[in-house]
Design goal:
By secondary structure, the chain is of the alpha+beta class. It has 5 helices and 15 strands. It folds into 2 domains: 148 residues, 2,3-Dihydroxybiphenyl 1,2-Dioxygenase, domain 1; 97 residues, Roll (2,3-Dihydroxybiphenyl 1,2-Dioxygenase, domain 1), CATH 3.10.180.
């Protein structure tokens, strides 16, 4: 079963502010706003990074799961990791065998997905999806709309290379993801557990920011690091070495 990190979702109080910061710092463009997220009391925007996507969702009414997550993690930040697979059936069987709850199962005919309960597979919402258009690098992706390729590609941000998930027990978090994804846990040069996908890595680390468990950082390939850092400072985003914090997410520039 192939697994690719196709989309990362952030959650924000103010969608326009978060998207404005991300587009200004990384030179991104918005390719799609999905009207279907309104049923969860959300608004959203998707931005291509290479052939993958960064999404921001924001609650537009009270009592949403996203709003509770914002409260729990004390503000904007990482929300979901969305993987693309070429075969969803084995994962669905494994989820059933492991008695993992499915928060939402989408079925649009040529696009299907399983969103897993974050209490069963912590620390962030994990979704594994299949698109019938194929798994070519620039293949279709239903959540990004039919015309995402028409949005000019960023000349600065070219690839999301790793997602960093944080919690009290990184090894336990990694083992949970490994059971679901049927991928082994490896150890990187820093001694951190990680799961290697076909195009990216899921890395598991201790909490150091005081915000609790969740999706805390992304490794982002950039073409001009100095320019991104300058644009981040101009936008008022926090900069520490090669890490910029935008919309509550730490972006490690590589």
């Amino acid at each position: 079963m192939r697994l690719r990190m196709r989309q990362i979702c952030l959650v924000a109080r103010d969608l326009d502010q978060a998207v404005g910061d991300l587009t200004a710092v990384f030179g991104l463009g918005v390719c799609y706003k999905d009207p279907s997220v309104a049923k969860w009391g959300l608004d959203n925007a998707l931005m291509p990074i290479g052939n993958d996507f960064l999404e921001v969702v924001a609650p537009v009414k009270d009592g949403t799961a996203a709003g509770r997550y914002l409260d729990r993690r004390q503000g904007d930040g990482g929300y979901m990791v969305i993987l693309q697979t070429d075969d969803l059936a084995p994962l669905k069987r494994r989820v059933g065998e492991l008695a993992i709850r499915i928060v939402h199962e989408s079925d649009h005919g040529d696009y299907k997905g399983l969103q897993l309960h974050p209490r069963d597979v912590p620390p962030a919402i994990l979704s594994v999806d299949w698109d019938g258009g194929g798994d070519a690098p620039d293949g279709p992706w239903h959540p990004a709309g039919p015309d995402w390729r028409l949005t000019p590609a960023s000349k600065l941000a070219t690839k999301m290379r790793a997602a960093e998930l944080q919690g009290d027990d990184p090894a336990k978090l990694a083992a949970g993801y490994a059971r679901v994804l049927d991928r082994p846990v490896a150890t990187n040069a820093q001694g951190q557990p990680e799961i290697r996908l076909d195009d990216a890595t899921l890395r598991f680390v201790p909490m150091t920011d005081g915000r609790g468990e969740g999706l805390g950082a992304l490794d982002l390939v950039v073409a001009d690091r100095a320019r991104v850092l300058d644009q981040a400072r101009a936008r008022g985003s926090a900069v520490a070495g090669d890490v910029v914090t935008v919309a509550g997410m730490r972006f490690r520039l590589i």
